[in-house]
Amino acid sequence: MAEALPETLFQQIYGRAPSDADRARLIRVKAGLGLSERDELWPIMLALDHYSRTTDIGRREILTALESLPERTQAAVRGVENEARVKSDRAVAQAVEKAAERISYQVVMHNQSTADTQSEKKKLVLGITTGVLALVFMGLGAVIAWFYVELHIGMCSGPKGRSSDGSTICYVKSAFD
Predict the structure, then answer these.
(1) pTM of the entire structure?
(2) Predicted confidence (pLDDT) per residue in 10-20, tens digit
């Protein structure tokens, strides 16, 4: 070693042997400050150098991490967007399914109500038709009965009277005489 450095002290602080770059840097410090190998300022200088190197490495790692932060953030946002899209699609599908069920139920109930109303109307029309037909047949029966009585039995052609025993009598004349 051309110029001596307190390498054991370096190994104690850094936990490793100094590299050529470490030696060159520390020799420049030694020359600049005029320090000897046994100077009491070396432990402080090596500790400060260790903190400086650790801080520089940490700063570089932070900057490296910050460089990739936008991509990682965008990837995370895309992941959240995709998850939100999936959840919203699922929620929309469930809402559509519920709405379709509700509409189907309402249509069925409306159709049932319409069928019931039409059934009631048909029952009413059937009842009225049956009543009218009954009246027609009763009237027809009455006409047929009148003709039967007129043709076969006859009808009183004058005022009714009383017989000696108190029964009603009348003069019967055929309608076709």
Answers:
(1) 0.38
(2) 788 888 888 88
